[in-house]
Design brief:
By secondary structure, this protein is α+β, with helices and mostly antiparallel strands. It has helices spanning about 30-45, 75-95, 120-130, 130-135, 150-155, 160, 175-185, 190-200, 205-215; strands at about 15-20, 50-55, 60-65, 110. It has a 4-stranded antiparallel beta sheet with strand order 2-3-1-4, sandwiched between helices.
Length: about 240
């Protein structure tokens, strides 16, 4: 049975990610990461889709995308082109064209609360994304990881930074302050909430906004408790 197409809303920030098939490592050396980042830059230009931040890890990647109002449908086309093009070039790079799929399947995406003057949840998601290499013990400080937007924003050439979108006005606190925020450990409750939204593809934000966003975007299933109810709970099994 064909999967139901997903609907994305313009003007809403989305945390998007995908992993390699079987969680295998696909990025080994700098050239492997550079290949993906080249394709990513081309996808941004091709679809004119705003990319707030990203990181490429040894077996997966994270993106934070912000489609303009009325352009939410660009996300599906963007991700399809990005993954298919990278897969083709990755096989060509290793001279093993046609030898299996690269990614595990459909990308994950969840909407993030953010409005005029309210950027706390967008910041938390961007911190979570840019801190990935520290959590994985690949570097001691997030800005040391070369394969992501934080390093590119701080140390990249002007032409290497130009395809990163400007954040909403007032959202970015400046380089020095932001580096300190990214390197600061998220509180346990914040990390848990982000991890749950990430695993289930559910909206991330305040409780009332999450419920409204899930209803509006057809994501109610991502908010329901998982597992069978315990015996004696009075609910149908």
């Amino acid at each position: 049975m064909a999967r139901k197409p997903r609907s994305f809303s313009g003007g809403v920030v989305y945390h998007v990610m995908n992993r390699a098939s079987a969680r295998a490592r696909i990025f080994h050396k700098d050239a492997d990461y550079a290949l993906f980042e080249t394709v990513l830059a081309q996808a941004v230009g091709r679809f004119d889709l705003r990319l707030l931040t990203y990181i490429v890890m040894p077996n997966h990647f994270h993106l934070v995308l912000w489609p303009r109002k009325g352009e939410g449908e660009k996300i599906s086309g963007f991700m399809k082109w990005l993954q298919q093009t990278h897969t083709q070039r990755w096989h060509a790079h290793l001279r093993n064209a046609g030898e299996g799929r690269l990614y595990q399947g459909r990308f994950k995406a969840f909407p993030v609360q953010g409005g005029w003057g309210d950027f706390q949840y967008v910041r938390k998601v961007c911190r979570y994304v840019e801190r990935n290499a520290v959590r994985a013990n690949l570097v001691k400080s997030a800005e040391e990881w070369k394969h992501g937007a934080l390093w590119r924003r701080l140390y990249g050439r002007a032409e290497e930074r130009e395809w990163l979108a400007a954040w909403p006005e007032g959202a970015y606190p400046g380089d020095a302050k932001w580096v300190g925020m990214v390197n600061q450990v998220l509180r346990g409750a914040e990390e848990k909430a982000l991890g749950e939204s990430f695993r289930r593809g559910s909206p991330f934000g305040a409780a009332a906004w999450r419920a409204a966003a899930a209803a509006r975007m057809g994501l109610e299933h991502t908010m329901r408790p998982r597992g069978r109810p315990r015996k004696g709970s009075g609910k149908d099994v």
